[in-house]
Amino acid sequence: MFDCSLDLGLSRQQVQLTPQGLHLAGRGKGTAAELREVAAAGRTVFLFEVGRMAPVQISGDYFYKLVPTDEAPTIEISGIQMHRTTGTRPFQNARASALTVVRKGVSVLDTCGGLGYTAIAAARLGAAQVVSVEVDPNVLAIARQNPWSADYFTNPAITVVEADSAEFLAGQPDGRFDRVIHDPPRFSRGGELYGGEFYRQLARLLGRGGRLFHYTGKPYSRRHGDSFVRGVTERLRAAGFSVRRAEHLQGLVARLA
After folding, report:
1. For all residues of the chain together, what is the average pLDDT?
2. Which of 3, 22, 35, 176 is deepest in the core (most CB within 10 A)?
3. CA-CA distances (angstroms) from residue 88 to 75, 109, 220?
4. Using CA atoms, how far apart are residues 84 and 248, in angstroms rounded to an integer?
5. CB-based burial of residue 187 (10 Å sphere; 0-12 exposed, 13-18 middle, 19+ buried)?
């Protein structure tokens, strides 16, 4: 018998390892051949279900894969990692981002919900309501298999909406939310989520005194420098926000006057 984690570090369990494989108390066993496959797979999370071990991944128009880290796993979409892992950890970074704007009792819009880490962080910080919008059903399917995302689907303060964020915003009333956490994919996959019209919709939904955290990443080129972030800042200001940088989070914190 030895001690290990079967849920990516959230808890510890006793398991028995024999020449035939791994015996999981009350959950069957993994054969030696399956364990060799897991060991050879490297950066892959496996789910033990229906008597077998299967990688947590989906092939479609894109390739979706849950990838382990030192903390909560991240998701890769066609090789592009969706969370920061250099110098930080996915769940830790989500909480730090939420802390910039979330206060007890506020209502929060979480755009581009992904694995739900930001929504979970906002709810745990005391938000009265978190509406998290995610357009990709494959991302949500991966989230449902991720033990770190469990609260995303079970916390009564969180409502998960499968929809396009821009379309969702257009259908909401003025002043619907107190706070927004906006963590869009890179510009090449969601350019409209960095546009002036989208920011005007955010301002309309927030109303006076509303606050926004906007993850931008840290794109930089020798030719243009950090003009991308400057452009985002200018469009937010044109929509009515005052803006300051949160360098350690690679984002912007904005407030409506």
Report:
1. 90
2. 22
3. 15, 24, 20
4. 11
5. middle
What span, in angstroms and rounded, lies between the C-alpha atoms of 185 and 215?
9
Average pLDDT over residues 158-182: 97
**DSSP letter at 173?**
P
Q: What is the pLDDT of residues 222-250, one digit of tens each?
A: 555 578 899 999 999 999 999 999 999 99
Question: Does residue 183 fall inside a structural domain?
Answer: yes
> Regarding beta strands 211-215 and 241-246, do their DSSP bridges make them parallel or antiparallel, or are they unpaired?
unpaired
Phi and psi, residue 36, nearest 5°: -65, -35
User: Cα Rg for the chain, rounded, in angstroms?
Assistant: 20
Q: Which amino acid is at 64?
A: Y
pTM: 0.90
CATH assignment of the domain containing 129: 3.40.50.150
Question: Across residues 16-20, what is the average pLDDT?
Answer: 74
Q: Which domain holds residue 248?
A: 90-256
CA–CA gap between residue 20 and residue 30 (Å, rounded): 9
Residue 122 shares a structural domain with residue 248: yes
